[in-house]
């Protein structure tokens, strides 16, 4: 019986030692899992903070975009109003100038050595003519019309005098 008791005591001691080993392994596993849980909570808090920051930034961007869109819509409205004003002004000017067909002759250039129309230099071979009508400018042969015994006149004065010729 003492041997059996010693054997049972040794077995119990062995089981106790194994139980302690298992308990220590489970405690280590539990410490590792608690550490992992702590890191996961910290990561969760960081992600929640990042999410809140991103949501705040998105709301700010949306507000900025809304203000910019309102400003652009106001600008478009102002541009449309200005376009309508310009169209009305153009129509009024068109109605005022509707009866005017031909342009007025341009003033005589200050340099008497140039044609009043094409600004060509008068040379030995290019003759200068005085317009015998409205403008009294000096014109070359190309820019003038023969009026017979009345002399020559520039093309613009001729067109004003003879509108059917255009």
UniProtKB/TrEMBL annotation:
Pfam families: RUFY4. Residues 1-23 are annotated as: Disordered. Residues 9-95 form the RUFY4-like domain. It comes from Prunella fulvescens (Brown accentor). This is RUFY4 protein. InterPro entries: RUFY4_dom, Znf_FYVE_PHD, Znf_RING/FYVE/PHD. The gene is Rufy4_1.
